[in-house]
TrEMBL record:
<dbReference type="Pfam" id="PF00194">
    <property type="entry name" value="Carb_anhydrase"/>
</dbReference>
<dbReference type="InterPro" id="IPR001148">
    <property type="entry name" value="CA_dom"/>
</dbReference>
<dbReference type="InterPro" id="IPR041891">
    <property type="entry name" value="Alpha_CA_prokaryot-like"/>
</dbReference>
<keyword id="KW-0479">Metal-binding</keyword>
<feature type="domain" description="Alpha-carbonic anhydrase">
    <location>
        <begin position="44"/>
        <end position="256"/>
    </location>
</feature>
<feature type="compositionally biased region" description="Basic and acidic residues">
    <location>
        <begin position="37"/>
        <end position="46"/>
    </location>
</feature>
<comment type="function">
    <text>Reversible hydration of carbon dioxide.</text>
</comment>
<keyword id="KW-0732">Signal</keyword>
<keyword id="KW-0456">Lyase</keyword>
<feature type="region of interest" description="Disordered">
    <location>
        <begin position="25"/>
        <end position="46"/>
    </location>
</feature>
<dbReference type="GO" id="GO:0008270">
    <property type="term" value="F:zinc ion binding"/>
</dbReference>
<dbReference type="GO" id="GO:0004089">
    <property type="term" value="F:carbonate dehydratase activity"/>
</dbReference>
<dbReference type="InterPro" id="IPR023561">
    <property type="entry name" value="Carbonic_anhydrase_a-class"/>
</dbReference>
<dbReference type="InterPro" id="IPR018338">
    <property type="entry name" value="Carbonic_anhydrase_a-class_CS"/>
</dbReference>
<keyword id="KW-0862">Zinc</keyword>
<comment type="similarity">
    <text>Belongs to the alpha-carbonic anhydrase family.</text>
</comment>
<dbReference type="InterPro" id="IPR036398">
    <property type="entry name" value="CA_dom_sf"/>
</dbReference>
Amino acid sequence: MMKNKKILVGVLFMSLLVLASCGPQKGASVESSNIENKSEKKEEHLDYKNQEEWDFEAGDAQSPINIETSTAVPMVDAGEITINYNDLVIDEVDNGHSIQIDDTGTAVINGRNFDLNQFHFHAKSEHTINSEYFPLEAHFVNKAQNGRLAVLAVLFKEGQANPAFETILQNIKKGEKATVSDPINTSQLFPTDFSYYHYLGSLTTPPLSENVEWYVMEHPVEVSKEQLKTFNTYYDGNNREIQPLNERIILKHENQ
C-alpha cells in the first residue's frame, strides 16, 4: 500500500512539472502575437512625433530640404515638364499617414517619360523656401520604365478655394478607401508657371530610399482657409523634418 502511494505522488509531481513548463510557452505565444500586431500598426500609422525611430536605409541625400533661393544654380538643360494626368482617378484612400489619390497618366520631365502612380498631401509642407513653411504640400509620384522615381512637389498657400482640392476633401473616408466618381481636374493642383527647383533626394517616408528626383514648384497654388481647416481634421503635422543639404546642388529652372 505504501509503495502505491509513492507511485501516485510521483505521478502527480511529474504532472505539475509538465503543466508549469507549458504555462510560459502559452503566455509567450500571446505576447509575440501582441508585438506583431503593434508592429503592423506602427507601419500603417507613422509616428511623426518620433521620426528618429523610423526605419532608415542609409545615406546623406535625404528629403525634404530647405531651399535657399539665393544659392540655386540655373539649370543648363531645357528642363521642361509636361503633364497629362487623368482626371478620372482610380480611388482615394486615407492610408494612415496621408490622403492618397491613386491615379494614372504621364509626365515628360526634361525629355524623359514617366508614369504617374499616385499623389498625396502633407500638412504642413515638407519642403521650405528660405526657411518658410507652407500650410500644405502635394507630391505627385512618377515612375520611369527603368524604375527611377520623380516627384513633382506643389506648395499651397491660403487664398481662394480650389475646386480640385474640394473634390478630394468631399471624398475622404477616414481610414478607408473610397471610389471617386467625380473627376478631379489635376491641372488645378498645379501653378500655371512651371518654374521649379530641382535636386536629388529621397522618399520622405520609410524606408527613406534615395536616388529620387525632386522638382519643387516655385509658385504656390491657392486653397481656402476652410479647405485647410478641413484637411487638418484628418492630418496636421504629417511632414518629415528638414534634412541637411550636405554637398548637394539645387538647380533652378525658369519656365519660358
